[in-house]
Amino acid sequence: MATKITLLPVAEKQRLDKWLWIARVVKTRKQAVELIEAGYVRIDAQRIEVPAKLVGPGMVLTIALDRRVRILRITGLALRRGSADVAEQLFEDLAAKAAPAAI
To answer: Which of 13, 14, 44, 83 has an alpha carbon 20 to 30 Å from 5's alpha carbon atom?
Structure first.
């Protein structure tokens, strides 16, 4: 049975820390807050330190995690955290596209 996702309208915005948690970038919302407050998240190339910053579709997030940097374009917002398959519908991974192909 496929998991249903409740997407918010495109005109809506959502708190950055909540979006990072719902999109499964981090495991807990507390981790999202700590990541943002430490300055490891950028929105459209601008460093953000406010977890309540609103984000919406089309914005590009650059997130420095422990061992890699993720570059994600937000494509959707959801009301609740779902499965990994559902979370993948909320963003486009730009870093994966930029990686050179193996020869």
So the answer is: 44
d(CA 81, CA 94): 22
Rounded Cα–Cα distance for residues 45 and 10 (Å): 22
How distant is the alpha carbon of residue 11 from its chain centre?
17
Whether residue 71 contacts residue 98, with contact meaning beta carbons closer than 8 Å, is answered with yes
Can you read off the two tokens belonging to residue 57? 């579709």
- The C-alpha angle with vertex 69 and arms to 10 and 24, in degrees rounded to 5, equals 50
**The pLDDT of residue 102 is above 80:** no
DSSP code at position 100: P
Q: What are the angstrom distances between the C-alpha of 6 and each of 11, 31, 80?
A: 15, 24, 7
pTM for the complete prediction? 0.84
Q: Residue 6 pLDDT > 90, yes or no?
A: no
CA distance linking residue 39 with residue 79, whole number of Å: 25
